[in-house]
Amino acid sequence: MATVSINLATGSFQQEEIIVGIDLGTTNSLVAYVHPESRQPAAINDLGRGTIVPSVVHFPADGADPIIGAAAREYLLTDPQRTIYSVKRLLGKSYRDLGQHASQLGYKVIDDNSEGLVKIRVDDRFFSPIELSADILRELRARAEHALKTPVNRAVITVPAYFNDSQRQATRDAGRLAGLEVLRIVNEPTAAALAYGIGLDPDEEKTVAVYDLGGGTFDISILRIQQGIFEVLSTNGDTYLGGDDLDRAVVDHWTATFGLSEAFHTNPHLQQQLRLAAEIAKKYLSQHDDFTTHLTNEAGQNIPVTLTRTQFDALIRPLVDRTIAACRQALADAKLETKLDAVLLVGGSTRVPLVYDAVSEFFGQPANNSLNPDEVVALGAAIQADILAGNRRDVLLLDVTPLTLGIETLGGLLDPIIPRNSKIPTKAGRQYTTSVDGQVNLKIAVYQGERDLVSQNRKLGEFTLTGIPAMPAGLPKVDVNFLLNADGILQVEAIELRSNTRQQVEIKPQYGLTDEQVEQMLMDSLVNAKDDVAARLLIEARTAAEQLLYQVNNFTRKNRQHLTETELTATEAQVATVQAALAGTERDPILKAMDELDELTRPYAERVMNISIQQAMAGKKIG
User: Of 423, 401, 412, 414, nearest to 509 (Cα)?
Assistant: First the structure.
């Protein structure tokens, strides 16, 4: 007998569980769904707390559960070391990817001198961006379940169009760790177009621009939509430009104009007042011509500050011009011969009149801002989720691959290349290197499944790339490319770029698996997500520690003459600490010991580098 449930929040019969759409943002995040009766998308406002959840995670000093959202944001100034923000910028990134921006964050990002993914240190605990993103997603899921009075287990999550395969997979992993089966990773501009109703008609052909100015980032994407298929023609932007920068321009103006520069740098309370006042001024001046407020100094005195709409426009004009320059480049890259059919606005900062006017003027048509710019991406994700639930029969859905495809990496881990639910035909690739000096062969083992350890997935085949030139570990560059055709046939190719050595093999990834087996593999991955991620992170920490020990031992062996006995003794003691941590089963002690070894040896490495440079300048051979 079929079962039918009643959703207490919507008062309607519910035969299928609701699939939500999630906008996991740099500054703010939202969750939305399509109402089963009205068929309209709506952002979820749980307990009247608003639809927006700030993407901030705070770890209390007493080790209690993390605080997420608006409550966590309060600690950004009072306890910055334990308050993590802008974690989306860290997803799928190594420390080297961050460059100078790492030093601008209020919390500590670990530099382990490798190309491994970044880790964030809070006291003696370590977190990956995936774990922190999962905390935010878990909060969104909890709010959705509370508001809708129904379990939420499946979701569509949006990412910027420029996100690479590693960043998309990290987002998918974060969803899985939050207990969500991520049915699809959707480009944010695609979601925005869906929210505006573009792409829902299979016979429609349009080319649109999506201008997205959020709190911390700016993106411009040019899309072509035909027969329900969204193609990104070009993308551009600035990952360090957003509404926060508009506020900062106002703060800088006030500190200079009202003589607050010295007090601003020494008084955290005044800093917070100024930033909050600048944000209020920005919003107020979108509707009015003049803004006045009062700040309070340490002596309790009132300091009046003012700003006119004309002054505000002049302050932010250089920032808006930077976004228009990116739009100009995106149009050039798209090589368009026809005028755009629409210009869609996304992100709260597009409410600023100067932004609207500049965008409309540049594109030669009024920009479409008819939807709430804060919610539009989440609404589009909800529509995509509704399509995947089978509730919109008129929209084309391409075939997808049922299980993740990837290869085995160090420590017996599965490195995903083509994630589950990717539209086919598709292609994707990653770059790898050798782990041992002089390595001339590289085994490529291909697996199918959702678990982190290859031993818990299904092996599809393997081959060996031979003839790699003998070089030090880390120097060879091997591209591994997956091409999955419409018939489900997977072609795997490995190429060593320096020598152009290549090898390839064809396999059938779906052969021999029933629908029941696929479902069981998916269920196992969700049930074991927390344990799987813990196992992966421990293996990754061990691998990174072994590589660090190799580098340090190699360095001290070659440069003993430049180190004192005290330095050598201290290094040997810390190496022993890392080795002792490696013998354990906990990740955090390994990462802590690595961090301390790296801090200890960095000055030595810098000194030896300076000596080498001096010798080179003197024309001597560098040993």
Answer: 401
Q: Amino acid identity, residue 453?
A: L
C-alpha distances in Å from residue 18, one per residue of 10, 145, 387, 523? 11, 10, 12, 18
pLDDT tens, position by position, 121-136: 898 888 989 999 999 9
CATH class of the domain whose range is 531-617: mainly alpha
Domain 405-524, CATH homologous superfamily name and number: Substrate Binding Domain Of DNAk; Chain A, domain 1 (2.60.34.10)
pLDDT at 617: 65
- Number of neighbouring beta carbons within 10 Å of residue 381: 33
Q: How many CB atoms lie within 10 A of CB 144?
A: 22
Which residues is 230 bridged to in the sheet? Answer: 225
Residue position matching structure tokens 């993914």 = 117
- 3-state SS assignment for residue 424: coil
In this structure, what is the dihedral angle of CA atoms 491, 497, 499, 504, given to the nearest 10 degrees? -10
Averaged confidence pLDDT in the chain: 85
* Tokens (6 digits) for 435: 């782990």
Residue 219 structure tokens: 């993106």
At residue 244's C-alpha, the angle toward residues 326 and 130, to 5°, is 85
Q: How many other C-beta atoms lie within 10 A of the C-beta of residue 321? A: 11
Report d(CA 166, CA 587) in Å as an integer. Answer: 22
Taking 50 as the threshold, does the pLDDT of residue 510 lie above it?
no
Kindly report the backbone phi and psi dihedral angles of residue 595, in degrees, each rounded to the nearest multiple of 5, phi listed first.
Answer: -60, -40
Closest by CA position to 476, among listed 500, 497, 492: 497
Cis preceding-peptide flag for 425 (omega within 30 of 0): yes
**Rounded distance between C-alpha atoms, residue 63 and residue 122, angstroms:** 10
The mean pLDDT of 413-437, rounded to a whole number, is 84
Q: Do 17-196+371-395 and 202-370 show the same overall fold?
A: yes
Choose among 195, 190, 134, 120: nearest CA to 159. Answer: 190
449 Ramachandran zone, left/alpha/beta (phi>0; psi -120 to 50): left
Spell out the domain ranges in the chain: 17-196+371-395, 202-370, 405-524, 531-617
Tell me the pLDDT tens digit for each residue of 226-255.
877 788 889 898 878 899 899 999 999 998
In this prediction the pTM is 0.76
Q: Give the whole-angstrom CA distance, residue 196 versus residue 369.
A: 9
Q: Give the three-state DSSP class for 409.
A: strand
Residues with catalytic function = 23, 88, 188, 212
For domain 202-370, which architecture applies? 2-Layer Sandwich (3.30)
Higher pLDDT, 205 or 298: 205
Structure tokens at 3: 């079962």
CA-based angle 350:351:357, to the nearest 5? Answer: 70
Q: What pLDDT, on the 0 to 100 scale, is given for residue 151?
A: 92
Q: Please measure the distance between the N-terminal and C-terminal CA atoms of the chain and give it in whole angstroms.
A: 79
Per-residue burial over 437-460, b if 16 or more Cβ lie within 10 Å, else e, is eebbebebbbbbbbbbbbebbbeb
Percent of the chain's residues with pLDDT above 70: 88
Give the homologous superfamily in CATH for domain 17-196+371-395. Answer: ATPase, nucleotide binding domain (3.30.420.40)
Rounded distance between C-alpha atoms, residue 219 and residue 138, angstroms: 26
User: 3-state DSSP: the chain helix, strand, coil percent, rounded to 5?
Assistant: 40, 25, 35
Spatial separation of the C-alpha atoms in residues 193 and 225, rounded to whole Å: 9
